[in-house]
Structure formats: structure tokens, C-alpha cells
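hey so i finally got around to running the thing on that chain from the lab meeting. sorry it took forever, my laptop kept dying and i had to restart like 3 times. anyway pasting the input first so we r on the same page abt which one it is
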Amino acid sequence: MASIKLEESVLNKSTLSLKEQIKIQGTSLHFFTEESRLRKFLSKIEHSKWFSKAIVFSIIVSTLILILESPMYDPESTFIRVMEYLNAAMTFVFIIEATVKIIVYGFIFNGESSYLQNIGNVMDFFVLIFSILGLFTFWGDAEFIKIMRLLRVLRPLSMVSRDPGMKTVIQSLGHAIPEIGNLLLVSIMILSLFSILGTIFFQGLFYHCHKDNIPNQIKIQTKWECIDHGGEWINKDSNFDNVLAGLLTMFEIITTEGWIEIMWAGVDATS
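ok and heres what got predicted. didnt touch it at all, straight out
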């Protein structure tokens, strides 16, 4: 008997929590009241597991479409046409999702639960608008249409608001930003010290002779020898002429890209 009562109490609590979860507030779009049958029906659909799984599946398919797109394919090929039809179908699914949520929660002026009061929904809504505009072809290949289609890459980010694990990771990264900022300041200070040191030793010494018009047999060591033989005395793009230029040069060195050229420029440093 005790176990039966315990199960009944758990069932009642779960039922109560479900009712609280799908509680409808205010008047949506100044038309759908709390007693609206359509709004109640859409609220049950929006809170159902299959609806959430269908949206996640659509996001995955949309992401795969973005991955498979390539400017190398023939625009008139069957593959591109299939991708366009799939993209249109996924956009239609996201239109249904936005419509259901807007009717259930209200658009923007229905309290804190309104559709556009949620940051994730705001991003989804703007990506949806750009996706809809990108479906129209009467603009041709206008640049702003290409940009709108490009913004579809933001769609996979909507997975963050649907996956508690991913949301936890993003929140952890957000909390770590202040500490990352402190680490960045320390790194800049260290690079600045080496930049000042490099400026002291190599200021104005990374110039070299551009000798396309000078025979290889002639050895050039100074600026005036370079100019006298018809060469051009130019500076390296990466140099230590001032602290800011030295800071950029130090950043290039720590990325391990182009550091060999900078090293030889230091070896060949001459006035």
C-alpha cells in the first residue's frame, strides 16, 4: 500500500510539473487568449518530445546541406537541385517551429516568456528570415542574397539551447572569459617586454637591398652600396622599428609562421 501511494504521489507530482511546464500566459498576438483551443493544442505539441527531436533532426539535415554545398558543382545539376529542395523543406520546418512558438508564447510583448525575449529564439528568427529571403531567386545572384545565404551557418548554434550538455559547456566558457582576459593581459605584457627589447637592438636595422637589377656577383652590405648599384633599400614587413610593429612581429613569431625569415633578417641586420 505504501509503495502504491508513493507511486501515485510521484505520478501526481510529474503531472503537476507537466501542467506547470505547459502553462499558457497572457494573450498571444493580441488574439489567442489563455483559453484558446488552438493555443493549448500547439502548446502540447511544442512541449512534446517528438517535436523537439524533429527540430533537432532538421537542424542536423540543414547542417549537412551546408557542408555538402560547393561552388564547384554545376548549378543546373541534379545534386544541386536536390540540395535546394531539401533546404526549402528544412526552412519550411523552421517556419512551422517559429509559428508554433509565437502562437504559444506570444511574439515579443507577452511578458518574459515571449518568443523574442529568448536570445536563442532571436538568433533562430533572424536566421529564418535570411533563409526565407535566400529562397527567392528573382534577385538573381545579388551580393546581399549571397550574404543572407551565408548567414545560414549560424543555424547549428541553435543546438546549444536544446542540448543541456552543450549549454553547460557554453556557460562554462562564458564564466571563464574574465580569467582568459587576465591571461591575455599577462601575455600582452610579456610580448611588450620582448618588443621593447627588440626595438632597442633592431630599430631601423631590418632594411635590405632589393637587387633585381643588380648582378649576383656584386656583394651589397650597406644602404649606399645598394643605391649606387641601382638597387632599392626597403624594409621588411615584420620589423622592430617601433613598439607596436615589434609587438606584431613577436605575435607572428609565437604563431611559428614566418619566424625563420624574421630570424635571418635579425642575422643580416645592417645599417
